[in-house]
Write a structure and sequence with these properties.
Elements: E1 5-22, E2 28-51, E3 53-57, H1 68-80, E4 85-92, H2 103-118, H3 125-133, H4 139-144, E5 147-152, E6 156-159, E7 167-173, H5 180-186, H6 198-206, H7 209-216, H8 232-244, E8 250-251, E9 258-262, H9 265-277, E10 280-286
Parallel strand pairs: 3-4
Antiparallel strand pairs: 1-2, 2-4, 2-5, 5-6, 7-9, 7-10, 8-9
This protein binds cytidine-5'-monophosphate (C5P).
Length: 288
């Protein structure tokens, strides 16, 4: 019988995100600089007696068959077309849900990678990414990880040099969830193609912390920030309250998670405290 093992599923932030066009299939073409951070879920794979796979999540609401990790198991099982060793998959959930941090996609990627190993399916990274794209646009990136420039639906990926180390303060306005589909539907179409990401990519290639921070400090880093939908008012109000305290939070993905990068640990702790004082949840983590 195979041994038990765990796979980490790190969250991602979008240092920049530009929607460039709408496609015939309803998806949008984008360009984005993606970065993994240390806040992560963990998936445990355990051999068991019997047959089939069984999926559990520490968050009961996420334990059903719709969970992207369960859907990854179902897809691999269907493709294998044969009986596979029985396994318990347990998802230990830390990443906030529907926050723009790719928590579900990260779990999906970890399930694909973990079950590929557990079941000895022999898929390479490109094949797993192809399967992953059937389940979500961010899954191919989550399989690859690190610092990357993504385009297409998000599945075309070029590895960038690792981002210089930063402390990351993630900001979660309490109880706010926003749907990705709704953000893509409701963003300001006049802002298509903005912001240009070239200066950010150049700064990363140069490894220049100051230029990276300068670009992030420009304010408009994400086309989806212009989306108007339920929750937008609360998010804008929280952002303004933080800016009033001298912080510069940036939207990740379709939100509502915001983030800030800090070079100094004490500055990051101070920022996290201010976030909590503004009645938002703060997660202190770092770039991977
Ligand atoms: O691929 P994923 O399931 O994460 O996408 C969720 C929704 O976000 C899609 O159904 C689509 O409405 C929107 N989307 C998009 N263009 C992308 C990615 C997502 O329009 N590149």
């Amino acid at each position: 019988m195979a041994n038990s093992f765990t796979v980490k599923a790190p969250a991602k932030i979008n240092l920049g995100l530009t929607v460039t066009s709408r496609r015939q299939d309803g998806y949008h073409e984008l360009e984005s600089v993606m970065q993994q951070v240390s806040l992560a879920d963990t998936l445990l794979f355990e051999p068991i007696q019997g047959t089939g796979w069984h999926f559990f999540c520490t968050d009961r609401d996420l334990s059903g068959p719709d969970n992207l990790a369960a859907r990854a198991a179902a897809l691999l099982e269907e493709r294998a077309g044969k009986s596979l060793p029985a396994v318990n998959i347990t998802l230990y959930k830390n990443i906030p849900v529907e926050a723009g941090l790719a928590g579900g996609s990260a779990d999906c990627a970890a399930a694909l990678a973990g079950l590929n190993r557990f079941w000895g399916l022999g898929y390479d990274l490109a094949e797993l990414q192809e399967l992953g794209l059937l389940l979500g646009s961010d899954v191919p990136y989550c399989l690859k990880g690190g610092t990357a420039l993504a385009w297409g639906r998000g599945e075309k990926l070029e590895r960038l040099p690792p981002l210089p180390f930063f402390w990351v303060v993630l900001v979660l306005p309490a109880g706010l969830r926003m749907s990705t589909a709704s953000a893509y539907k409701n963003f300001d179409k006049n802002k298509m193609g903005e912001p240009a990401l070239t200066p950010l990519v150049t700064a990363i290639r140069e490894g220049s912390r100051s230029k990276i921070l300068k670009w992030l400090g420009r304010g408009f880093t994400n086309t989806l920030e212009t989306a108007f939908m339920p929750g937008t008012d609360i998010l804008k109000e929280k952002k303004r309250a933080l800016e009033h305290r001298g912080l510069r939070p940036i939207l990740s993905g379709s939100g509502p998670a915001l983030f800030m990068l800090h070079e100094n640990y004490y500055e990051a702790c101070k920022a996290a405290r201010m976030v909590e004082e503004a009645n938002c949840r703060a997660y202190l983590c770092w770039t991977l």
